[in-house]
Amino acid sequence: MNDTSGSTPEAAPRLWAVVGATGTGKSELALNIAENLRSRGNPAEIINVDAMQLYRGMDIGTAKLPLGERRGIPHHLFDVRDVDEEAAVAWYQPEARAAVRDVQRRGGDAILVGGSGLYVSSVVFDFRFPPRDESVRVRLEAELAEYGADALLARLQAADPATAARIDPKNSRRVVRALEVLEQGAATHGAALPTTPTLWQQNTRVIGVHVERSALVERLDARVNRMWAQGLLAEVEELRVRGLERGVTASRAIGYAQALGQLDGRLSEAEAIAETQALTRRYARRQVSWFKRYPGIEWVEHPIDVSPLIAD
């Protein structure tokens, strides 16, 4: 059901989502929108919807905006998890929606910014998560350790081929989660963008930032090179001390997994960088495909004048 708090949707503060592929300049656009709104008396604030920017200390590899570059605009849900903690989307959704409501109660528009598609969907759309059962999960994880990921994936393919087709075969955590849901009687895992999604809040604007593919690839490759030049290895060494390798989510982050490989001697620096670049390009393609399915998304390209967006 849509959230229609406030006298009318038009009178209520809005929810914005600034989305798109990694490296397209979403943070800059969100800042410009917030700054423009605040200049008009709307105390807009920004809420993170990038799964890896939730983690404390994961800064260089996530291109997290430093505090000094946030223009005095309040930012929420950055640096709220330790690297050895899981940041599942089912945990994130209520946290993000609470942050949105808090901003709106203060009279401001809430601006989501990030490219983690499932996380964006969980906030923007009426999106419910299937139930959890820790005892079932523990048993499935034991089966995973004993029989391997291929056996569990084959079981999922037989029971729910549509969900199995959406899951990265290497992501054993998601395979276990899907089987956990099925064992509780659900016909399918269901944690995907609905065919006809309904907005959580009617007064919502979704802005997609588009960069032409060849230009984006050049940007992404250069950004990965900068990550290593800016000290990603040192950042990962520090995070390792804080439990990075125990984190089922953080340790798999693109760039961080490759830096760990370099530190362990499994990858040379050139190999770590090249692998990170290839995975980043692939991830950007998946992001574009995900957001293209959003009904009503408004695509913009650089240079972006935010004034017409605010006036709409």
Instruction: Determine the number of helices (DSSP H or I, runs of at least 4 residues).
Output: 12
Low-confidence segments, given as residue ranges, are: 4-10
Structural class: alpha/beta
**Going across the major beta sheet, what is the strand order?**
3-2-4-1-5-6
The N- to C-terminal Cα distance equals 25 Å
Task: Bin the strand percentage.
Answer: 5-15%
Q: Please write the string of helix (H) and strand (E) elements.
A: EHEEHEHHHHHEHHHHEH
Which geometry do the CA atoms define? globular
Identify the quaternary structure here.
Answer: single chain
Mean pLDDT, to the nearest integer, reads 91
Summarize the main sheet. Answer: 6 strands, parallel
Count of extended strands: 6
How big is the Rg?
20 Å
Helix content class: 40-55%
How is the secondary structure organized here?
Elements: E1 15-20, H1 26-39, E2 45-48, E3 75-76, H2 89-105, E4 110-113, H3 117-124, H4 134-147, H5 149-159, H6 161-166, H7 172-183, E5 204-210, H8 213-229, H9 232-241, H10 256-263, H11 269-292, E6 298-301, H12 306-311
Parallel strand pairs: 1-4, 1-5, 2-3, 2-4, 5-6
Protein described:
47% of the residues lie in helices and 9% in strands. The chain is built from 12 helices and 6 strands. α4 (134-147) packs across α7. It is globular. The two termini are 25 Å apart.
Quick summary of this structure?
Helices cover 47% and strands 9% of the residues.
Keywords:
312 residues, alpha/beta, 6-stranded parallel β-sheet, 12 helices
